[in-house]
Structures are given as structure tokens and as C-alpha cells.
């Protein structure tokens, strides 16, 4: 049964966009919030093929029905805080205020219409929430507008909102390439700071740009289906966006992997990115699942929570929900730290994460624990990792559950030999720690794992020496072999 305390922590955002109206409910204010409810209705409020300057009447009716449903669900779920944010379509429409008034009258929800610069700021905060030192340009393409933000090590330096939304470009210019190019050129040329991010990253936000990533995944049989934090070199993106920008609806539908509601405007979104790349000259494009909603969530967090590591907090939540002894992971991390000195900061962070979620597969069948845990982490939607680190963490946990974990196409394609060896080492030491202690807190504190010369030494307090047995010996020996050392056991 849901406690009143848990219900009172719930917060929600409704994003009223040009294409869709989406409700996301979070189970509380945490550094790595996990949606407990996420529903999108494709309303098309911004579809205005007759250029009337008003909201699409059919879209308005769909949006009202969706908002009525959302209001009922929010009351039933006892959500404590609800923010409704409307972006380009509503703010640009002459009847936008009438729409907001109707929503308030029929649902009791108050719609806040935010301007383009505020939309840009919140979307940029969404990127910063996952990467606090992000540098480059955040580009968020919606149906009605394109927001661009210059980021420098997690600080917002400059921002702009341009009427280059994919739906608007399709509605106004259709497939007229010359007029499209002229329109995009006119607005991008007005942004004189794009080249300041040369050689850095373009963080691509928005459903239309994520559809480009989905096309790449489908076409190339890319082994990870998660779009979030997929990074592609600029040279590949130049070619891909150029090709997509010239495709017809029929051609794109044959490729598959793209929502039918986005097919018409996808070439326009691809052309905008292609022309943006030419002016910005980034080293790569990073597709992000974060945006306005995540930025809103990040902003409402207390300052102390903002300072926490989103990956480690996500792993702690993951462990608390699914492990037998969820407090044990941090103890394992401290226990094995002496044999992994001077790791690069990013690898040390992944080692800590792996120790925290090192018991995630405990309730799987023993024959499938390794591969099930690997797949679970590889495809987990809420781990804020680039694809290399995602595969590395999954491979580490797979190695925790078996001595000879092989991985799959993703690890073969994305990890080099050194990364696989490091993942196996981390996995085997977690395996040893859990075997030695049985997952019980306090036992590892009475032992020490250390390196001396060419030896890996496991040292016991005499009062817990009976914990040493055949299985512990086998796993200590295996770990030592991976480290090209001999194993030794000592009593003190």
C-alpha cells in the first residue's frame, strides 16, 4: 500500500509542445529522478498549414482531452506539485491565451507559457543535470522553434530561440529546398557565437533529432538501442543529415525506425542540423534524452541534491530497490580500493558504481545471472552514461557473476582489450567480496585486500579466519591470476 509520505513526495510536469502533450510524474526529488509515469499524446497543436496564426483546432481538442485525463490521474496519484509548461506553439498562437483559459476551466490546471529564452535555459539545464561540466552547444529542436545555448563547463553563457522548428518549416516551406535553405541560413547567420564552440560537442535534444539517431541505429544494426548519449563524429553526422534531408516520405518509411508523425518533418530537422554543423564545427554530436523536463526537475532540486553525482545516486536507488543487501556495495568499494590506486577519475567513478550495483542479479536463475544483469544495465533507461561507459559497467557486472563472461556484440564492438580486462578485474573483486562476506555488512572491515610486490594478499583478523574456504580460495586465485600475481592468505 502506498504511504502518505511517498505520495506527498511526488511531483509532475506537463510539457505542452507543438507536437505533443506529455505528462511525467517523478516519485520524489532526487538527483537521479526516475519517472513512475510517462505518457505522451501526439496532438499537433502547432500544425498550421493554412498559416492562420492560431492553434490547430483538432489539436486543441486532443490536448484538452489529454489534459482532462492527466488531471484525473494526478489527483488519483496524490501528486504534491504539478507544473504545466507550454512552449512555442501556444506562445506564438493568437488564441494561445484562450487555450490556457480553457485548460484551467476544464481541468483546474494552470498553464504557464514560457518564452523562448526560458525554454532554452531549461533545456540546457537538462544537459547540465547529466553532465555538470558540459561544454559546447545545446540544440533543442521542437515543432515550432529551435533553441540554442552556448555552454562552458556547465555554465550557460549565451542563448537564443529561433523559429526553425521542424513542423513549422514543413508547414510553411514544404519540400522547397531553396526557400528552406534561405530561411535556415537567415536565422543561423544571426547567431554570431556558434563558432565559439568549435571542436566541442553539439548536444542534440528533441524528438526529431533523436529520430535521426534511431535511423542510424536501425540502418547500421548498432548494438545498443538506447539513444541517450549516443555520440557520433561530425563527419558521419554531416553525411547522414545530408542524406536524410533529401529523402522523401516514402523513402524514410521504407527505412523504418521513425514515428510516422515525424516522417514529414524529419528532412527539415536533418537540414537544420546539417547547416548548424557547418557553422559550429563540433567534434561530435551527442544525442540526449534530457531536455526541458529534466532541466525543470534539476532546477527545483535543493542545492545539496544538485551537487550529488547523478550516476552514483541512480545506482544507489537501483540497489535499494533490487538488492538483498543494498548497503553492502559501498563497503565493497572501500575494501577493494587499495588494489586499484591511481585510477583515472572516470574509471574510479565506474568502479564505485559497479560495487554499488554488484548484487543486482541475485534473484535471477544462477545460469542466467551474468547475461541478465549485463542486459539490464546495457539497456537501463535512467543511467546517465555515454555508450562506452554503459557497456563497460554492464560488462563489469556480467563478469561479477561468472568467471569467464564473454559479453556480446556490444562489448566486442565498443570495448577494447584493456577495457574488458579492467571490467573483468572489477567484476572478479566484487565477486570475491560478496563471496567472502555473504553480503553481510561489517565482515569485510575485518579483512584487508592489498598488493605487495608480485602478490595479492587477503589478510584476516584471526576471529573471522573461518570465513576462508575453498570457494574464497578459488576466487582469490582467479583474481590474482588476472592481475598477473600470486595469491596469499595471512592471519593477523
Automatic annotation (TrEMBL):
| CDD domains associated with the record | ASKHA_NBD_HpPPX-GppA-like
| Residue stretches spanning the membrane | none
Q: Which GO MF terms does the UniProt record name? A: pyrophosphatase activity
Q: Which residue intervals define the domain Exopolyphosphatase C-terminal in the entry?
A: 328-486
By its UniProt entry, which InterPro entries does this protein fall under? ATPase_NBD, GppA/Ppx_hydrolase, Ppx_C, Ppx_GppA_N
Which residue intervals define the domain Ppx/GppA phosphatase N-terminal in the entry? Answer: 33-302
Report which superkingdom the organism of origin falls in. Bacteria
What is the official name of this protein in its record? Phosphatase
Q: Which organism is it from?
A: Thalassospira profundimaris
Taxonomy of origin reads:
Bacteria, Pseudomonadati, Pseudomonadota, Alphaproteobacteria, Rhodospirillales
